[in-house]
Design brief:
Elements: H1 2-10, E1 19-22, H2 29-39, E2 44-47, E3 69-73, E4 79-84, H3 89-101
Parallel strand pairs: 1-2
Antiparallel strand pairs: 3-4
Length: 102
């Protein structure tokens, strides 16, 4: 998540928003928030929730099967890039910078 903070800082004020989605659910909301504060993360962290049918509202909507999963979304929520597993800082920078240039 430190890589997400670096991207958040690097692209502040540009047409890029960094958001993390935690699939730990509502019971760990306070723990997740405390962790984010402790680590100095200033980007948004959403806590995904199960709907009435037991489906994750965000993770399932975007087809997230593994964590972590990096999704770069365009305007309107279109998936421009999907990568499962850990993402190195240079991979994230290359992906975001190429999309910002478009």
């Amino acid at each position: 998540m430190a890589n997400l903070q670096k991207a958040h800082d690097r692209y502040a004020g540009r047409d890029v928003t960094v958001v993390a989605v935690a699939v730990d659910g509502e019971p760990l909301r306070k723990t997740i928030g405390g962790f984010a504060r402790q680590e100095g993360y200033t980007f948004k962290i959403l806590v995904d929730e199960l709907d009435a049918m037991g489906i994750w509202k965000v993770a399932d909507a975007y087809g997230v099967a593994v964590t972590p999963t990096l999704l770069l979304l365009g305007k309107g929520g279109t998936v421009l890039l999907r990568k499962g597993g850990k993402v190195r800082e240079d991979e994230l920078e290359k992906a975001v910078s190429s999309l910002v240039k478009q």
